Amino acid sequence: MFQLLIRRLFWSIPVFFLVTGITFVTMHALPGGPFDSDKTPPALVQQMENTFGLNKPLAQQYLIWLGNVAQLKFGPSLAARGKPVESFLLPGLAVSAQLGLMALFFALAVGLPSGIVAALRRGRWQDRAAMGASIIGVSVPAIVLGPVLYWLFGLYLGWLPVAKWSSLEDGLWPYLSHAILPAVTLGAGLAAIVARLTRASLLQVLHADYIRTAHAKGLTQGSVIVRHALRNALIPLVTILGPLAAAVLTGSLIVEQIFAIPGMGRYFVSSINNRDYPMVMAVVVIYALIIVFFNLIVDILYVFIDPRLRQAN
Amino acid sequence: MSSSTPVSGKPTETAARSSGAAQAGDAGAHAVPANVEELGLGGRQSRTLWQDAVRRLRKDPVVVACLLYLTLLIVVAAMPQVFAPLPYDQASFSDKLAPPGSIATGKLEGHRYILGADRLGRDILSRLIFGTRVSILVAFMGAGISFLIGVSYGLVSGYSSPRVDNVMMRIVDVVYAYPALILIILLQVFLTALGQRDDSNLAGWQRAIVMLDRNSGGLFFIFVAIGAVNWLNMARLMRGQVLYYRQQEFVQAARALGAPHRRIMGRHLLPNAIGPCIVAETLAIPSYIYTEAFLSFIGLGVQPPTPSWGSMISDGYAALRSAPHVIFFPALALSLTMLAFNFLGDALRDALDPNLRN
Asked: If you ran DSSP here, which 8-state letter would residue A52 be given?
C-alpha cells in the first residue's frame, strides 16, 4: 500500500513538469502580451516587461518560475500590477471548494440512494422513475439548469436569493440559502452519473454466488445488501471520484458565472484573456494538484474497500 | 431490452453458429463456440450481431422517436435557409425582446415572431434554426475526429510491442492528467488569436487553417479543440479491446497463415474491437455538443453574429430578468438534442451488450 502510494506520487512528478511546461509554452505563444491593451508608450511597456522578467529567454523564465513555486510563491499578477496571485486565488479557492464539496455531497446524497433503489426494484416503477430522472439529469447541462433554477426559485417564486454568496459568519441559513441553487446546479449531472453507475454495478453484484450464499446463510436482506453487495458495488463508484472532482472543477466555472459567486473559476478565463501569465500558471497548478490529490485518495480508498488489493501489495 | 428477443433471435443465432463454425474451420480453429455472443468474432458473425441489434433498436419506440428527431435536425442543419423565416443576423431594434407570437412593428412589419425576438430584435426561430448547424456539425465532426485519432492510436498501441505500447500509453496518461477544460480553453484562445491576426504575418499553412475557420464561422477551431482532447478515452478503450482480441485464436491463426500486420489489424482486429468504441463515441456526443455550447456561453466559441445554441443561451441569460422567453427555446433545443443522443447511446449499448440479452 505504502509502495503503491510512493509510486503514484513518483508518477505525478513528470506529469507536473509536462502540464506546467506545456501550459507555459502555449501561454507565451499566444499572440499579444499582458501590457498590450494599455495605451502605454512602447518604452514603458519595455520597462514593465523588464521589471517582470518577460524579456528573458523562455526556458529561463520557466526555471525562475519553478524556483519560485518551490518556495510556494506564484509571483505577481500582471493584470493587477504586481499584487501577488495568491491574494486573489486563495479566497476564490476557498469559495470554490465549499461549493464543490456541497455539490459532491448533493450528488452522493441523491445519486446513491436512487441507484440502490433502482437496482433493488429493477424493472418496476421505482427503477424507471430513477433512470428516467437520471438520463434527464445527464442531458440537461449546467448552462440550462442554472438559469432555469435561477429564474424559477430566484425570480419567479422568490424563495431563494440569487447572485450573491454568503459566508458562514452571517449565520447558517443565509449561508446555505445562497449555496443551494449553485450546488444543485453543479451536482445534478453528477448525481445522475452516480445513480446510473450505482445501479449498474449493484445489478452486476447481486447475481454473484456469494450473495446467494449470504441469503442462504439466512442473513437479513438489509445486511446482505449493505455488508456484501454494496461494499463490492462501490468499487467502480470510487474509481470515478477523480473524474468527478474534475467535473466539479470544470462545472464550477459556469456555475460561478451564472450565480455571480466569487470563486476561482472566473480568474481562469480572464487571466488567459489578459495574458496574466503568473495567474494562468497558478490556476493550472491548482487544478492539476486537485486532480492528482483526488486520484491519490481514490487509490487509498480502493485498498480500504477491497482487501484483495491489500494482499496483492 | 425486449423480453421476446431470445425467442425471436434464436433462428438467426443458430444459423450464425453453423456458418461461424464453417468460417472458424477455414482459419484453422477447432472449437465450435457455444453461442454467437461468445464468438462475436469474424466478419460474418459480427454482422449478424449488428443486424440483430438493429432489429431490436427498430422495435423501440423511444429509439425511433430519437432517430426521427435527429434526422429532422440534420435536415434543418443541412439547409437552414429553407426553414428559417429570416436571416439570422436580421435585426430590428424596435422589436427587441418581442414576446413569442407577436407581430413585428418596424421595418419588418407583418412578420410574426413565432418564438419571439432577442435583445437586438433578431428572430429567435431563425437563429435557432441556423444554430442547429453548429451543434450538429460539432456532434459529428467532434465524434469523427476523436474517433479517428483515438481508434487508430489505440489499435497501433495495442498491437505494437509492449515497449512501444507502454510509451504510447504513458503519453496518453500524461495528456489525461492535463485538465481537459484548461487545454480546450488554451487551444481555443490560441487558435482564435491566430485567426484574428493579420493575414500577411501568417505562414502558408496557418493562412489556410485561418481561412477554413473563417469560412465555417469560427467552427473549425472548436472541432480541433474538441477532437484533440477527447481522443484519449477512445484510444484507451480501443487498446484494451485490441489487447484482448490479439490473444484470440483467430488472430493467432491468421498470423500462423502468414497474414501481414496490416491485414491482421485492418481485417481481424479492427472490425471486432470497434463495437464498444462506437457505443462510447455515441455516448460522448452530448459532451461535444455541450462543450461547444459551454465555450460559446463564456464567449470563446463561435464568433458573433453566427448563432449557436450556447451563445443564444448566453444572450438569454443576460435578459433573464426582463424576458425569460429568450433563453427558453435554445435551452430546450440543447437539452432535447443531448437527451436524444443519450437515449440512442444507451439503447445501442444495451442492444450490443450480450450480457443483457437474457
From this structure: T
